[in-house]
UniProtKB/TrEMBL annotation:
Chain ranges of the Beta-glucuronidase C-terminal domain: 470-573
Sorted UniProt keywords: Signal
Pfam families noted in UniProt: Glyco_hydro_79C (PF16862)
Source organism of this protein record: Mycena rosella
Database matches in PANTHER family: BETA-GLUCURONIDASE (PTHR36183), BETA-GLUCURONIDASE C-TERMINAL DOMAIN-CONTAINING PROTEIN (PTHR36183:SF2)
Signal peptide start and end residues: 1-27
InterPro entries, alphabetized: GH, GH79_Enzymes, GlcAase_C
Protein name listed in UniProt: Beta-glucuronidase C-terminal domain-containing protein
Length: 659
């Protein structure tokens, strides 16, 4: 939800008052102005003046816990009959939410200039999970208008002339080619999409996106978001102060009758794909919406129920203002390094996720991340966020959410799972992969592609909230175990020793373990998952670098235990059977690399392969012709190092094997 910062700048004080009035940190924004978080610089970034996404400033790791915590942890699993397992979860549980206004930077310039790093990042998840969920929307969806053409063949453009004092969000114009861009992506990697319906104006609704998306995306379309945080509409002046869940329901009725009267849904498919109520738990509780009869009334039309929630906001740093109290990230770091963060945030939704089950609906966290208004410097962009995001995702799965989309914006935020380089640097810089992406990769493997996976947050007597543990089950039997260690202690004194046993089952002679690792919770860049990394800022073409490192741990077959060590800090995913490992790590990988260019007018210092890989967008502007070959069936690739040309306009992709 929230505000576009461009209009906010012109009405700064109004914006600020509203933002600060928002209790519970619901608001998110796409920010296009410098973030003021550097007010609390600690070390490297003291003189940094660039955009937020690449700010190198790091925090100080928190002290080791005192008194000491339980570090030798018995994990007693049961081979069958474990109570309280979650609903069955999909490997695509952890998806991405892309602010609509930045899709031309992240997905591609147009349907023939796709961002190859994006394809690779999605392919990595697909390899482990089978598919990927991506939501295109956010506050900029609310006034998005489908137009026939835009200048210079652009696929989207902010119409700043349309900004008025009350709407505060510049209307976004987009063309059908944005939808073709999405569908072309889905033809390479198994990405399925959510789109937002513009909801500020309901008389009449602008249904252009619905008709076009159904036609162009077909089965790759998962749902249409019916309103973005409607319980904040009154606060922002989009609805009268009396606006209630009943009024929102009335608008859904209006939508359906307008779809019928205009013929906007010729296949009859779109009107069954609504996602609601997408509230921020700000002015309305979920129960108030359920008790309005929402789900029963629109049961045939609702594909998913959904909410949006951020644990807190960093809006003062994003917007400043005369009375803004900018939060020192160091003062909130420890709030991200504890499992309690997740149980507290999710507890208010447990009744709703049970309710959703009784109605046969999935329940999504439609937009979230570490803090709204861009996240916190040193937290959202460090290893802390990788551990936090993975624990959060697993706790949502345990809590019977059925998916969660982690938000990304432009250059001026800290929390991006991945960031394309600034346009003016895209000829020599590659992408920056953030900690949340590593969490998504590990989550995809934790759940895997079986569709039979259930998750349980395991209680152990005297367990510290610094060392949460999950059992992961398929067909009722434990297959994987996830062990976190949020403590930062290089001495080894706080390493976890998790002693796994299986009642009613037999411990294997050995188990395989993959680690999510960094030297400290405050480390930026160079995080590793099973030994592979996407490097530092500007270092990635979306393919993992380095050799995969899967540890083998010998078990004690006499005692019937396996002891897994987890460094402080760190995370371990333990595969209890070989099948548990191969089902999600053995799938053929598909990755894309652009080939070297034969001609370049660019500066001689730029390696052509790097140039080609970094961004097709700039290639086009410099008219660097690539080679086109006939399209080939990307997903049929089985063997490593099979090079297949994929024609994507002038971007030539090579299919190979990275992992
Ligand atoms: C199942 O979960 C509920 C709610 O958290 C709890 O009260 C109950 O004790 C759990 N049952 C078992 C057998 O652990
Ligand atoms: C999740 O749903 C399952 C199945 O209904 C239930 O047993 C379990 O207690 C629920 N978990 C939570 C945390 O509510
Ligand atoms: C995409 O952009 C390139 C370069 O601007 C252009 O040549 C191409 O025709 C565009 N493709 C579409 C489908 O508009
Ligand atoms: C931009 O908005 C203005 C005012 O709403 C409108 O008149 C104009 O047609 C819009 N321009 C485009 C390209 O959509
Ligand atoms: C991408 O979309 C365009 C429509 O602009 C279409 O002509 C083209 O065939 C698509 N390319 C691929 C590789 O699917
Ligand atoms: C749970 O949700 C249902 C449906 O809204 C409601 O009737 C019930 O009172 C709620 N229970 C609690 C404990 O909030
Ligand atoms: C800032 O604080 C001062 C003093 O408390 C108050 O008079 C003023 O109205 C506040 N301004 C804003 C924009 O909140
Ligand atoms: C790119 O633009 C940003 C923001 O205007 C600026 O800070 C940076 O120095 C520019 N980079 C280059 C290489 O010109
Ligand atoms: C899991 O479900 C998806 C549909 O949601 C389906 O496409 C896929 O084939 C299923 N996977 C398995 C292993 O059954
Ligand atoms: C839990 O901690 C208390 C106090 O330190 C101790 O007395 C008790 O034995 C512990 N329980 C277990 C199961 O370790
Ligand atoms: C990440 O690794 C690169 C290459 O080894 C190195 O140059 C860089 O300093 C590392 N960055 C951090 C934050 O460790």
């Amino acid at each position: 939800m929230g505000f576009e910062s461009t209009p906010c700048r012109s009405v700064r004080s109004l914006c600020l008052v509203l933002l600060l009035a928002i209790a519970g940190a619901n608001c998110d924004v796409t920010i296009y102005q410098p973030n003021k978080q550097a007010a609390f610089t600690q070390s490297a970034g003291a003189t940094y003046s660039g955009v937020a996404a690449y700010n190198p400033t790091s925090l100080s790791a928190p002290p080791v816990p005192s008194p000491t915590i339980l570090t030798t942890i018995p994990i007693q699993l049961q081979n069958a009959g474990t109570p309280n397992l979650s609903v069955k979860q999909k490997g695509s549980f952890m998806g991405f939410s892309i602010e609509m206004s930045v899709t031309n930077q992240v997905l591609g310039k147009n349907s023939t200039f796709l961002q190859v790093p994006f394809l690779n990042l999605m392919a990595n998840i697909q390899q482990r999970a089978g598919s990927v969920m991506v939501r295109v929307g956010g506050n900029t969806q609310e006034s998005a208008t489908l137009v026939d053409t835009l200048d210079n063949g652009r696929i989207l453009e902010k119409n700043l002339t349309g900004v008025t004092g009350t709407t505060q969000t510049p209307p976004l114009d987009f063309t059908r080619d944005l939808l073709y861009t999405m569908s072309n992506i889905s033809s390479f990697v198994n990405v399925h999409w959510f789109l937002g319906l513009p909801w500020f104006v309901t008389q009449p609704f602008n249904l252009g996106i619905m008709t076009a998306a159904d036609e162009i995306l077909g089965d790759y379309l998962l749902g249409f978001q019916a309103g973005n945080e409607p319980d904040m509409y009154a606060l922002h002046g989009h609805r009268p102060s009396t606006y209630s869940p009943y009024d929102y329901g009335g608008e859904i009725s209006d939508l359906l009758s307008q779809i019928a009267s205009t013929g906007a849904d010729p296949t009859g498919r779109s009107q069954k794909l609504l996602v609601g109520p997408n509230i921020a738990d700000f002015a309305w509780t979920p129960e108030q919406v359920w008790d309005s009869g929402f789900v029963d009334t629109f049961s045939d039309n609702l594909a998913y129920l959904a909410v949006e929630k951020y644990p807190r906001d960093n809006c003062a740093a994003a917007f400043g203002g005369p009375n803004a109290t900018v939060v020192d990230p160091q003062s909130v770091l420890d709030l991200y390094l504890t499992h309690d963060a997740h149980t507290t945030l999710l507890q208010p939704y447990l009744n709703s996720t049970m309710y959703a089950q009784t109605k046969g609906k999935g329940f999504l966290m439609f937009e979230t991340n570490s803090a709204s208004c861009g996240g916190f410097l040193g937290i959202s962009d460090s290893f802390t966020a990788a551990l936090w995001g993975l624990d959060y995702a697993l706790q949502m799965a345990h809590s019977n959410f059925t998916g969660a989309m982690f938000h990304l914006g432009g250059q001026n935020v800290f929390y991006n799972p991945f960031t394309s380089p600034p346009t003016n640097e895209s000829t020599f810089h590659q992408w920056t992969v953030g900690p949340i992406y590593y969490a998504a990769l590990a989550m995809a493997e934790a759940i895997g592609p079986s569709n039979e996976t259930q998750v349980l947050n395991i209680g152990v007597p005297n367990l510290s909230s610094l060392t949460p543990i999950y059992g992961i089950y398929e067909n009722g039997a434990p297959v994987r175990v996830a062990v976190f260690n949020y403590v930062d202690d290089p001495s080894g004194a706080n390493d976890v020793h998790a002693i796994i046993s299986i009642a009613g089952g037999t411990i294997p002679a050995s188990v395989k373990v993959k680690y999510l690792a960094a030297k400290t919770v405050v480390q930026k860049g160079n995080i590793t998952w099973a030994g592979q990394t996407f490097g530092d800022n500007f270092a990635s073409d979306g393919r993992p670098m380095g050799d995969e490192d899967i540890q083998t741990v010998t078990c004690d077959t006499t005692a019937q235990t396996c002891t897994i060590d987890v460094p402080a800090p760190g995370f371990a995913l333990v595969f209890l059977t070989d099948a548990a490992l191969t089902e999600n790590a053995g799938a053929p990988s598909i990755t894309f690399a652009t080939t070297a260019q034969t001609k370049t007018r660019n500066t001689a210092t730029v390696d052509a392969a790097v140039l080609a890989t970094s961004n097709g967008y700039r290639m086009s502007e410099h008219e660097l012709a690539g080679t086109s070959k006939a399209p080939s069936a990307a997903r049929a690739v089985q063997a490593p190092l099979v090079a297949v040309g994929l024609a994507m306009g002038t971007v030539l992709a090579v299919v190979g094997r990275a992992i």
